[in-house]
Amino acid sequence: MAEETLRTLDRALEVLRAFGRGSPEPTVAQVAERVAMPRSVVVRILATLERAGFVEHASGNSRKFRIGLDACEVGTLYFAGNLLLRGSEDVLHDIAERTGFTAYLGTLHGAEIVIWALCEGRTPVRFIWHAGDRLPVATAARARACGFCGAGYRPRPPGSAIRRGTTGGCPGRTAAAPRNGTKRANSS
């Protein structure tokens, strides 16, 4: 395939990539600085993306933007059609249960690992990431080595039963027990 691209579309995608967990609601000026584009170009791109539902104004602040619902919907389609992700829950649960460490599933994207899914372990020391987070490859490799060295992990045979009724199939987490282990107040 030829390397022909649409420059305007390339710029719009670059603007979308300027949003992130560290700065989920940037201003036009912040986006322009991150992507090294003139502010006037960023304003037009954001207006187009807003009209299409891919960005929206942040609640209570007309100067800030955030990712829109249509972008969220498109992003979730990546997970919906991913066979590896669908089949990973039992394996992640098994690793977390047997080792006590949080188990992650991710994919290599350049020099980073993008987290797809996780199952929290029960050890008191945790590195908590979420689906969509990016980690340097070296960081993810060190975390994996810490979790598996000497742990004696052996995968559960395919088709064997796992405990159900916990959130995401993870041990020690139910709908009433949040991630940080604190008790939720009764809302009834």
Contiguous helical run count: 7
Helical percentage: 25-40%
Q: What order do the SSEs take from the amino end to the carboxyl end, as H and E?
A: HHHEEHHHEEEH
Within the largest sheet, what's the order of strands? 3-4-5
Span of the ends, CA to CA: 59 Å
User: How many separate domains make up the residues?
Assistant: 2
How big a fraction of the residues is strand? 15-25%
Structural class: alpha+beta
| Low-confidence residue ranges | 145-188
How many beta-strand elements? 5
Largest sheet: 3 strands, antiparallel
Question: What's the alpha carbon Rg, rounded to whole Å?
Answer: 20 Å
Shape: elongated
What oligomerization state is this entry in? single chain
Mean pLDDT: 76
What would you say about this model in short?
Helices cover 38% and strands 15% of the residues. It has helices at residues 7-17, 28-35, 39-51, 69-80, 83-86, 89-99, 137-148, and strands spanning 55-58, 61-67, 103-109, 112-119, 134-136.
